[in-house]
Every structure is written in structure tokens, then in C-alpha cells.
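Database export, one record per block. Field names are fixed; values are copied verbatim from the stored entry.
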Amino acid sequence: MHLDELKNAGLSENEAKVYLAALELGETSVYRLAKKSLVKRTTTYLAVETLKEKGLMNSYTSNNIAVCFAENPKKLAEMLEEKKKALDKVMPELLAFTNLIDKKPKIQFFEGREAYREVFKDVLKYPGSEMLGTLNEKFFDFDNYFMSYFIPKRKEKKIWARILFPSSKELRTIAQDEDKHFFQSRTIQSEKFKVEIEMVIYGGNKIGMVSYEEEIAIIIESQMIHNTQKSFFETMWEISEKKLNPELA
């Protein structure tokens, strides 16, 4: 058995060297083991002890001298089999922990003036889907990105959008081009509906939030959070105005 194979079987490099030397030498002293394995004598003593704990080596005393010898290599296979049985026994619990980890929300945080792009770049990864969102007036500060890149790409990928607007004349003017921008919009006529951040619900299990003023963006991947926010959106959609008139704001 080669050194690398012994290491793959769970032995340290020094343990593997000492064990191979012991197999070749038969009953021998630590001094000869160290010389044969090219491992320092003090390290050889430690390796012999750990190999004895693993059942791969043994020793006895003769004339006040410790005599070491390697156990049958089959012991190594038995050792690996015992480890496998122990692992199989705890595997259900380990998998249960993994399932819990998988269910935890995954959160990505971005900073900088262009942090918002990370959210909308992620939206474009879901062609043929629907994006729900609220629009913030800061949208106009980044008009070139949205009008020249994001909206054309969204249309190209056939990502339909439904947008809720606060009551604003400037935002209402965008709503007049619904067909052009491949979206449907409604407005909320309430002073309490203040949209200080932009939020998009997309991808089947994701929420994106953008604060243009604070130059931060967040993507949350969570089925439960997504479903809850979607239910809020759908409720507001039902009570919102269906016809937008830019002269009313």
C-alpha cells in the first residue's frame, strides 16, 4: 500500500510512513523505525502511540527495550468499516441539520451607487416569469440604465411586470407607456403609501430591495418571505386604481 493511499485512508503522513516502515521491518525498535521512515525519533514515538490507539500497531517490552510491530493491514479495513458504520448511524441527524440550513433565508447585501444593478441583473435570470414591484421616484435618476438597458432586456426575456405607484404625476406619466415597457401598473391614492425604497418580488422565491439614497441593495432568497410579500402586493393590487390619469396627480 502506498503512502498516499494510507493518507487517503485516514492516517497522517508521519503515521503512514511509520506504519509502512513497521510492515517492512517486522518486530523492531523505535530507533530503527525512525531511521527507516525518515521521521524524527520523537515524532516516531507519537506516531507509534496513535497507531496503537487505532489498532494498527502494538508493542511489548523485551530486556527493558520496547519492541514495536505492525498489526495486519486488514485492521485498517476494519477501522474504516467501523468509521463507516458510525457515520451511517448519525447520517439521518446530519441530513436533518442540512435540511434546516437549506431552509434558512439566503441574503446578499450590496453597497455603492450601482448596487441597485445587482438586484435587476438577478431579475433578468428568470426569463418568462413575472416581476412584481413598487416604483420609487429616484428611478428617474437612473433613467438611462432602466430605459436603455433593463427594460429592453426584460422585454427580450419576456419578463412581465406589474407595478404599484404612489400617487405622483411624474410616475403616472411612465404608466402611459405600459405596452411599450411590457408592464401593467396601478396607483395607490393614499398619503400613507410612501415608497422610499424600490422593491421587486421575482424568481418564484426572491425579494429585491433598493435604497437609492442610501446606495444599498439587498436580495433575499426565501420562499416564506417571498410568499408573504407577494400576498401583500396582491392585496394592494386589488384595492388600487386600475386606470391611471397623469392629470390627476
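Remark 1: The chain has two domains: 3-75, 106-239.
Remark 2: The radius of gyration is 34 Å.
End of record.
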